[in-house]
Design a protein that fits this description.
two-stranded antiparallel sheet; TIM Barrel; alpha/beta; 266 residues; globular
């Protein structure tokens, strides 16, 4: 007889495929920067992502109440602040694990800016949410970004590795953080963290190839996938972009093969 599975394990299977990798598209930006291109009609965008066979989407609780996420995993974001705030690095808790349970979520996420002036309060929130997640059997994704007055380079391997390990130390089940720029340095981040590490997409990239190459290199380094927003939902064809990313993550496709899925030349 197989051992009983915990709630966390069951929910993680709805986010990660059998290869223990995932393609997540976060769409929580409506709180931070407002209804930007790609996030005006949320259901229409989600429908395009579902056609691309996205593994999971990440939403704020208010949007999650109004949309159908199909067979994709649902992650509810519990942190927020706007760019209009005097200190936009100070992420505050705007939802709870209880909310996520009622919404049928498969995970929750918390954002921590490591090095920010309010790092202490963000860490306290992460620790509390981690405890709540253990009580409910809810997986926790920690967005761990080096940002603040003493962070000279937010992609430096030392600070990224510290941020990733910090999230794991406080109880996160998945870490999302910055890519460090090359596979060798990112491998150091992955190797120092005992839970899956996925990369953030960051600002809208100059070219699609840049995004695909970053993803390919992160996978070569042992990364567990990605959580990329604007470079997906603001792409001219989000469905094809998800398919291209999935090919890199789940089928070990080359960057050229992924570009062919998009119908773009080398």
């Amino acid at each position: 007889m197989k051992p009983l599975e915990s709630g966390k394990k069951r929910r993680l299977k709805r986010i990660f495929r059998s290869d223990n990798r995932t393609v997540i598209v976060p769409m929580d930006h409506g709180v931070t920067i407002g209804p930007v291109t790609g996030l005006v009609n949320m259901q229409a965008t989600i429908d395009k992502l579902l056609l691309g066979d996205v593994d999971a989407v990440l939403l704020n609780r208010g949007i999650a109440k109004t949309v159908d996420t199909g067979n994709a995993g649902l992650i509810i974001h519990l942190s927020g602040i706007t760019v209009r705030c005097p200190d936009p690095n100070n992420k505050v808790q705007i939802g709870s694990v209880d909310d996520a349970v009622r919404l049928g979520a498969d995970a929750v996420s918390v954002h921590v800016n490591v090095g920010a002036k309010q790092e202490d309060s963000m860490l306290a929130t992460l620790g509390k949410v981690a405890c709540d997640c253990d009580d409910f059997g809810m997986p926790l994704l920690a967005m761990m970004y080096p940002r603040g007055p003493n962070i000279k380079d937010s992609h430096d391997v030392e600070v990224v590795a510290h941020a990733a390990r910090l999230g794991a130390e406080l109880g996160a089940d998945i870490i999302k953080t910055n890519y460090t720029g090359d596979a060798e340095s990112f491998k150091a981040v992955v190797d120092s963290c005992h839970v899956p590490v996925i990369i953030a997409g960051g600002p809208k990239a100059e070219t699609t190839r840049d995004v695909l190459q970053m993803v390919k290199d992160s996978m070569t380094a042992g990364g567990a996938g990605l959580s990329i927003g604007r470079n997906v939902f603001q792409h001219e064809d989000p469905t094809k972009m998800v398919k291209a990313l999935s090919a890199l993550v789940h089928k070990e496709a080359s960057v050229d093969e992924a570009m062919n899925i998009l119908g773009e030349s080398k």
